[in-house]
Amino acid sequence: MKALRAVFVREWRLASAGGGGPAGPAAFMLAALALVPLAIGPDPDILRAAAPGVIAFAALLASLQGAERMFGDDLSDGTLELYALSPVSLTALSAIKAAAYVSAVLWPAPVIGFVAAMAYGMDGPSAGALSLGLVLALPGLALVSGFAGALAAGVKRAGLLIALIAAPLQVPLLVFVAGVGRAALEGTGLAGANLMLAGAFSLAALALAPFGMAAALKGRLE
Amino acid sequence: MWSAFANPERFERLAARLVPWFGWGAVILFAIGLPWALIISPPDYQQGDTVRIMYVHVPSAWLSMAAYAGLGGASFVYFIWRHNVADLAAQALAPIGAVFAFLTLATGSLWGRPMWGTWWEWDARLTSMLVLFLLYLGYMALRAAIEDERLAARAGAILAMAGLINLPIIKFSVDWWNTLHQPASVIRLDGPTIHASQLWPLLVMALAFTALMTALVFMNVRNMSLARRAEARARRKIEGGEG
After folding, report:
1. Whole-number pLDDT of residue B15
2. Over the stretch A51-60, which tens digit does the pLDDT of each residue have?
3. Which of A24, A128, B23, B238 could disulfide-pair with B215, CB 3.0 to 4.6 Å?
4. Residue B124: closest CA among chain A residues belongs to which residue?
5. What's the structural domain count of chain A?
């Protein structure tokens, strides 16, 4: 437990010291969301209708931003080998790293999502529901990104590979988060169901992805 | 009994014996199925002649999913028991499955244009099929990106197993979501709802496609196994041992 806490704190420090913490993905998401109205035009009806999907999509892309660093740095500087030698299982370490990634790097996504939803003309409750959907989806996004990051660790130009691996697996989250916003906007009463599905996917990812990450890392270290 | 085929040479001999059977089987089945499906079978009362696209589309879809199931299964076997043949099978299945997935999307798109009035619709089944295609691409890209052969095989196996989650999503997408794509009409509990005059050519075409894919996979496995051995021999020569 102590070791896991130490790893968690280390991830936090590394994220905020060298990587600017949440600034990278947040700036990416903000920039993407600021460009969308320029691309599809300022028509408020279209913007409002597109908001849930566009915001969920921007959050998904933002979650991929830090995936390369999640394991790539630890592999190249040998930290991962020390982790593997320690009595703590790589599975638990992977889960902790994903948790640190969410809490230190990705946390602004729901906030930005809320602000952007309001700016795109969604009403308060719908924007809140969408934001809550992002909160529930973030662990899943981070775990799948981390899984892709672990598979691609140490590969040249890993970023492209990570996007190709993670994006198909993150599709359900994209569908459910956008579904929350759209259902809330249209008042179909299915927002709750979509919320629960997003949460369920995150839980399923929590149950499976750490084992996948650990297996991928073990292969790397052999 | 299965571990008997873990020996690459024995597997190679078996493959060499099976390839002509499946290859000629495919030729004969296509010789029956293609004219039956494309010329003899009656046009659909609603879809007219475009229904004939279905005879390519449906077998491709089945096989692209079957190939992925095989890829996942072979990856599992390789991951647990480290049988080289399983890895070869996975590697051989990936490009073939990807081609079938692409065929499914392309023929579906061609059919969708006159029938739905659109080349592409973001409906659950089309999207999950596209995801399957991307999974194949991701698998091949990952293997190509990692230089060390064994590392690539392990990483690929893990990814292929994770991607298995998508298969039930594709299969049941037409039941879970209210989609434009029609629900299953052949494999159902209450029997097929497709008319016999279309079902039989479809089944023959499906068998023909299956035989073709099996032959291609066995050929691919053999080629790769030979290539690996040739490479190993060349390396031994360079390193000074006798070839």
Report:
1. 83
2. 999 999 999 9
3. B23
4. A175
5. 1
Query: CA-CA distance, A63 to A45, in Å (whole number)?
Result: 28
Cα gap B195→A23, rounded to integer Å: 60
CA within 13 Å, CB half, B40: 13
Measured CA to CA, the distance from residue A149 to residue B220 in angstroms comes to 30
| 10-residue mean pLDDT series, chain B (243 residues) | 65 85 91 84 72 85 91 90 87 94 89 74 75 90 86 89 80 64 66 73 89 91 86 84 52
Instruction: Give B79→chain A minimum CA distance, Å.
Output: 10
By CB atoms closer than 10 A (0-12, 13-18, 19+), residue A76 is exposed
CA distance A177 to A200: 12
- pLDDT at site A141: 94
List the beta bridge partners of residue B44: B48
How confident is the model over A111-143, as pLDDT tens digits? 999 999 999 989 999 999 999 999 999 999 999
Give the C-alpha separation, B197 to B217, whole Å: 31
Within 8 A of A151 by CB-CB distance, chain B residues are: 142, 155, 158-159
Among A158, A168, A212, the residue with its CB nearest the CB of B138 is A168
For B44, phi then psi, to 5°, come to -70, 145
What's the longest Cα–Cα distance across chain B?
72
How far is it, in rounded angstroms, from Cα B6 to Cα B28? 31
**The token pair that represents A60 in the structure block:** 């998904």
* Distance between B134 CA and the closest CA of chain A, angstroms: 7
Question: Mean pLDDT per 10-residue run, chain A (222 residues)?
Answer: 86 76 86 89 88 93 87 86 88 92 90 93 92 95 93 83 88 88 86 90 93 89 76
Radius of gyration of chain B (CA): 20
Taking CA atoms, what residue in A is nearest to B123? A175
Residue A8 belongs to domain spanning: 2-221
